[in-house]
Every structure is written in C-alpha cells, then in structure tokens.
Specification:
By secondary structure, the chain is an alpha+beta fold. Helix content is 15%, strand content 33%. The chain is built from 4 helices and 11 strands. Strands 1, 2, 3, 4, 5, 6, 7, 8, 9, 10 and 11 form an 11-stranded mixed β-sheet that branches. The protein is globular, with a radius of gyration of 18 Å.
Length: 233
C-alpha cells in the first residue's frame, strides 16, 4: 500500500482529545501496535502528534486500549495518562463500551437482522479464524448481532454490534453465512480493494469517560470511496 495513504502526525484524523483520552479514525493499512513487519504503528504516530502539538519534552505516555485489523478502518481509542489506561481497560473488559461496526458485504444475509453464534478457532499459521456451529477443541464462543442498513446495486450494508471480541470475528462469522466483506481475500472475496483495505469500519463508540464521567458518543466518518459514499446517499 502506498505510504501516502497512511496516517502520519500531520494528517492524523483526530475525532476527540482531552488530557486523558485521544480517539482517532484509523486508515486502512495502519497497524495499531508494532508487529513483525517493522512498520511504524499508529501508536507511535499519535505520540509524535501529541509531542509536537503540546511541545512535550521527553517521552510521551500513550496506552493502547484495543486494536483493529490492519485493513480495517475506524475508531481507535488511546489513553493519554496512566490514570485513564486501567480504567479504559476495565471498561472494555467489562463490555461497557458499545461499539458499532459497518460492513459492506457481497450478499444479502438470510434475515434482515439476526444474532450469529459460532465457535471460532484461530489458526496462527495463516492468521485466520474458522467459524464452527458447535464447540470444538480450543475454540472460543463468538456472538454478534447484525441488521441490514441498506441494499446497494452490488452490495449490502450491514450494521454490526459485538457481544464478544474474538480474532477476526466479524470477518469470519459473516463469511460463514455467505456474506463476504468487500475486499477481504482472506475470507473469500473474489478480488482485493486497490488500497488493500476491506470494507469493515468501526463506525461508532459510546462509553463513559474514565475520568470526567462524561457520556461520549463518537462517530468516525467513512473512508472516501464510491462504495462507502453510496452507503450515505
């Protein structure tokens, strides 16, 4: 993927920031934390942004609260203080943050809205999760709720809410019912997107601020491409 499409401290899309929390809109191709690729992670980009904007000397504290897959876009929350980090971690572990995803898939699901329950088993060799209808060894229960938001010419827009946060959960579960996310070669798409993205977007999050106790409702604008744009028409 061309580096010009990735986030840097000058083009970072900040959705919310205060002394304790910063929320950004992740681009496709950004990795949230460092991995074996050696590519600069989004966490480092955010640190550079904070250091420059607030003229901070020395190292900048930043805590990663959750992740998104590299080809996925949307909301990522970071903690800016050691006070906020454990509180945000607790909030997520206790499922008190309500996350909503949008996905563009190739087929209309059997029902206009439904709950999917699978047992996912991860294969580390190909970094892929396989959905089973019954529990198998080393599998983890995965639950999501979806509803059809819009039917496009060639695709369908789904809204998804997760009850569990498993590896590649949305991608794997939707694929298992014949609803493959646009561009997701790993889970059965016929072709990739030009920018190596997939049409899965962390659209909205609602939670109580860990320090101020203010109720936050953050919505991440969609990437600018013809299919996502058609979802808003």
């Amino acid at each position: 993927m061309a580096s010009k499409t990735l986030s840097n401290k000058n083009n970072l899309i900040v959705l919310y920031e205060d002394n304790h929390v910063i929320i950004v809109n992740k681009r496709a191709g950004d990795i949230v934390q460092g991995d074996k690729t050696g590519d600069k992670p989004l966490s480092d980009v955010v640190k550079e942004y904070i250091k420059e904007k607030y003229n901070k000397p020395g190292n900048v504290f930043l805590g990663t609260v959750h992740r998104l897959d590299r080809p996925t876009t949307g909301i990522i929350i970071f903690a800016r203080t050691s006070k906020a980090l454990p509180r945000l971690n607790k909030l997520f572990s206790e499922k008190k943050a309500q996350k909503t995803y949008w996905a563009v898939v190739n087929n209309k699901p059997p029902k206009s809205e439904d709950t999917l329950i699978h047992w996912l088993k991860k294969n580390p060799k190909n970094n892929k999760s396989y959905a089973h209808t019954k529990e198998v060894r080393d599998s983890k229960k995965a639950v999501l709720h979806y509803r059809v938001l819009k039917t496009l010419d060639n695709y369908v827009l789904l809204e998804i809410n997760l009850e569990t946060g498993r590896h590649h959960q949305i991608r794997s579960q939707l694929s298992s019912i014949g609803c493959i996310i646009k561009g997701d070669l790993k889970y059965g798409a016929n072709r990739s997107n030009k920018d190596a993205s997939i049409h899965l977007h962390a659209r909205q999050i609602q939670f109580t601020h860990p320090v101020s106790k203010e109720d936050l409702n953050i919505i991440a604008p969609l990437p600018d491409d013809p299919v996502w744009n058609a979802c808003l028409v």
